[in-house]
Design a protein that fits this description.
It contains 2 helices and 29 strands. It has 316 residues and is mostly beta strands. It starts with a strand and ends with a strand.
């Protein structure tokens, strides 16, 4: 069979491998956090992974908050100002992880997901992971279920599908996103980058949106990244996909990021080491629990589905 699935380890340390045996394309996923740990293809006589991941599930468990590599962002994305928000006349304060004065990257990035389904056939391989959030943080007193599906198809196409179901008896606020880092060569400085957007959210000194949008078109066509620094949120042009393209001419690797309409924003962050770059699909801007830009109000029993696709090719 062209596609295969391998599962190793136990519990939160389980690792899933989705493989296209015809091409050698492989995807490695951790049950810990439902993390995407590698997405690799054959280049000449070797296999190259374009995800800046971890050495093991234990490494991920011990170091996830050091950069939040491949973290599932839910029920809020990026920064939440002072960890505080009001919802339907009630005030709440998040207790989980803070950077500076902001709670950051949601509540389930270190959750122990479980495998609920896995199928491989002639056309695809996919695995579905599930996790029930049950009001563990008093600052988010709403119950919801997260289901994450990784779907590997032909032509090195990987689709990530997140389904959030409100299992509570009341409305809840919701944003969703991902936080993967991609590494196509020795340094991101040599990448050709294209971003399909005309605007980005203006941030204040705390990296929180001011409510204004500013024009941005510097990478509307492929440009060498050079020493560019980003920690910004971009508004994706409607019907202009891929939303972002990364290409390294030296390795011959090209990555296209193709979100569905459920992810209209793209947060891009360049770490100081400049060996990889975070390209984050978001359903809202940061601090949406306070500014309401892109915020979803999920009703009891409601399902919200978020989809993005990564397409990887070798150009030489």
């Amino acid at each position: 069979m062209p596609f295969e699935i391998k599962i190793n380890g136990e519990g939160s340390f389980e690792t899933i491998i989705l493989c296209d045996t015809a091409t050698g394309c492989e995807v490695e996923i951790y049950c810990f956090g439902a993390l995407l740990n590698s997405f690799s293809v054959k280049t000449k006589n070797c296999k190259t992974n374009v995800v800046d991941g971890f050495s093991s599930p234990l490494d991920a468990k011990e170091n996830i908050t050091n950069g939040f590599k491949s973290a599932k962002l839910s029920p809020f994305v990026c920064r939440l100002s002072e960890g505080k928000y009001s919802f339907e006349d009630n005030k709440h304060t998040i207790n989980k992880f803070y950077i500076g004065a902001s709670a950051i990257h949601g509540l389930i990035y270190d959750a122990a997901f479980t495998i609920t389904q896995s199928i491989a056939d002639d056309e695809k391989a996919f695995v579905t992971l599930g996790y029930q959030y049950s009001k563990q943080d008093e600052g988010f007193p709403f119950a919801y279920h997260t289901e994450v599906t990784y779907l590997l198809q032909k032509n090195n196409s990987l689709t990530l599908i997140t389904t959030i179901t409100n299992t509570d008896e009341r409305n809840m606020p919701l944003s969703d996103g991902w936080h993967p880092y991609f590494r196509l060569g020795e340094t991101i400085n040599e990448l050709l980058v294209q971003i399909n957007c005309k605007e980005m959210a203006e941030f204040n000194e705390s990296l929180l949106p001011t409510g204004k949008l500013v024009a941005f078109s510097s990478f509307s066509s492929p440009q060498k990244f050079g020493d560019t620094f980003f920690d910004n949120c971009f508004v994706i042009n409607e019907n202009a996909y891929p939303a972002c393209t990364l290409e390294d001419r030296q390795t011959g690797l090209k990555l296209e990021i193709i979100p569905g309409s459920s992810y209209p924003y793209l947060q891009i962050y360049t770490p100081a080491h400049r060996k990889s770059i975070a390209i984050e699909n978001l359903s809202s801007v940061p601090d949406a629990f306070n500014n309401s830009v892109g915020l979803i109000i999920s009703k009891p029993g409601q399902q919200n589905i978020f989809t993005t696709t990564y397409r990887l090719s070798v150009t030489k």
